[in-house]
TrEMBL record:
Pfam families: Pribosyltran (PF00156). CDD domains: PRTases_typeI. The keyword Amino-acid biosynthesis does not apply. GO terms for biological process: GMP salvage; guanine salvage; hypoxanthine metabolic process; IMP salvage; purine ribonucleoside salvage. It comes from Xanthocytophaga agilis. The gene is hpt. This is Hypoxanthine phosphoribosyltransferase.
Amino acid sequence: MVQIKDKQFDIYIPESRILERVSELSNQLNQEYATKEPVFISVLNGSFMFAADLMKRISIACHISFMRVSSYESTQSTGKITEIIGLQESIKGRHVVIVEDIVDTALTMSQLLVQLKQHEPASLEVATLLCKREAMQKDIKLKYVGFDIPNAFVVGYGLDYDGLGRNLPDLYVVKEEDF
Ligand code: IMP
């Protein structure tokens, strides 16, 4: 159990299980993008840990880029998207995989997909560690999903609660009575 500000969180997915799943996803990506020299775009801040563990297991030629969007305040999604750090390299004609920590309402990802499509990539897919299917308000294709999780607030492994908890190596879920 960990306490962050006013909330208590229980361990939900230990790091060892996360890394097993990350290895499976990277194996799949290594096969499917073997000859495509993909561009992985890590969506900061939340995906930094997932992206690092994933990329360490990617053995094919690839590029890694970062962009930052903000659509969340506290435990409620605002549905707003703010591009703070743009793309550093051209993705025109490239095979792009967006690396995200979590898809909740999917408002962020659907807007990100619209924006990135305007750059005319050869292909565009999503690799998200976590997906809250029940909370999704947009019908978007998520090709690579680590774990489908219930609609409850999680923290750790890169994800934060009011800026805290990103450094926790395991994933935690908020205690029922706190949600
Ligand atoms: P969406 O637009 O509702 O899909 O929200 C996506 C973003 O909200 C993610 O990239 C996270 O930064 C944040 N988010 C959504 N759910 C959680 C959660 O349970 N814990 C921490 N951050 C979350």
